[in-house]
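In practice, a research group might receive sequence data for several interacting partners and want a quick structural hypothesis before committing to experiments. The following worked case mirrors that situation: the sequences arrive first, and a predicted assembly follows.
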Amino acid sequence: MEGTFNFSKPLDTDFFQQPTLDLASSLLGCILVKETEEGTAAGIIVETEAYIGPMDQAAHSYDNRRTARTEIMFHQAGLAYTYVMHTHTLFNVVSGEPGKPEAVLIRGVEPLSGLDLMVKRRGMPESANLTNGPGKLTKALGINMSDYGHPLTKKPLFITQGPVPDSISSGKRIGIDNSGEARDYPWRFWITGNRYVSRHQKAEKTIVNNGGST
DNA sequence: TTATCGATTGACT
DNA sequence: GTCAATCGATAAC
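A structural hypothesis for the assembly, expressed as tokens:
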């Protein structure tokens, strides 16, 4: 039934125009969809990290560094920022106002549709390992550098509304040990307890859907 | 659990 | 030309 999976309409540009930290948590539970000639694959976003260029030493765009690579972060919110590191492509959602180089890294998704395709692309059987990391999910979904700068409000790569998470946790970001004090900013967000979160780590804060905070 | 190596890209000298 | 990087898989311990 994969060809007929009924996704809701892509989110609008306004959704992406909220402040970057809000967007990073709002993206949890949303559905990331990529359509290719091989078929469609989609997953629920379960883990994100915010990068706020101007004052964030961990961001590629720290201190407003504007280069061919970071250029897209200076543009309108809702575009795709993809880049390659080592053997992997990483996917970010551009956020912030035009002129402010901010983005949200997608670090984990829960497979929702196109599972066979993901298994094939990853060359491994189904498991949490399929999409529980930023390089893993791009490979599973077929995201690559040709998606650089694509607006996430339309095909073939887009984001739609999904189930609202019961509980969201936040804590320090992963893999930025060399970033001065920015390494301790609690700008990572994940769906509490989800098995497709890339790494288990102590939450500094957990917010349950209906208010309460622990 | 930590360590190392792969192998690509962009940024800076 | 050189080097570091929003990582992943595997090997060693």
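Before designing any experiment, note the following. Residues 115-122 of chain A form the longest helix (8 residues). Strands of chain A lie at 31-36, 39-52, 80-85, 88-95, 102-113, 153-154, 157-160, 167-171, 188-191, 205-208.
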